[in-house]
Amino acid sequence: GENAVLIQRLLGSYQNSLDQAFDQFDKAMNAQQWDDVKTVAHTLKSSSRSVGAIRLGAICEQMETLVMEGDVVGISLLATKLDDAVADVRVGLAQHIDSASNQSVVA
Q: Which of 18, 22, 36, 52 supports an S-S bond with 28, CB 3.0-4.6 Å?
């Protein structure tokens, strides 16, 4: 019904913003532009938590802290965890969007 359509739109919007933010994150990491890394991490933290991607939100919060502390080694190590968390979220999003799509057809 209407809820399934709303959920599908919300998750689709989050997926688009996740893809854009992750691209920005990669560019900022490669250029070692730490303020940009922090900004993207902050944005991802909030949006991820709002859709239930709690692990990704927590990693983004840790990333913000490491940037503020100037811990470049920690940032690099955590970036791998962030990559993994984003991959997991993308899988979950695909499953939920597909599920919501099927529900809207059935309902």
A: 36
Please report, for residues 36, 39, 42, 43, 79, the alpha-carbon distance to residue 32 in angstroms, rounded to integers and kept in the order given.
9, 13, 17, 18, 12
Check residues 56 and 103 and name the one with the higher pLDDT. 56
Tell me the mean pLDDT in the region 87-100: 84
Structure tokens, 28: 């900022």
Write out the DSSP string of 64-103: HHHHHHT-HHHHHHHHHHHHHHHHHHHHHHHHHHHHHHHH
Q: How far is 99 from 104, CA to CA, in rounded Å?
A: 9
Tokens 């709303």 correspond to: 6
Angle at 60 between CA 33 and CA 69, to 5 degrees: 55
Length of the chain: 107
Rounded mean pLDDT of the chain? 90
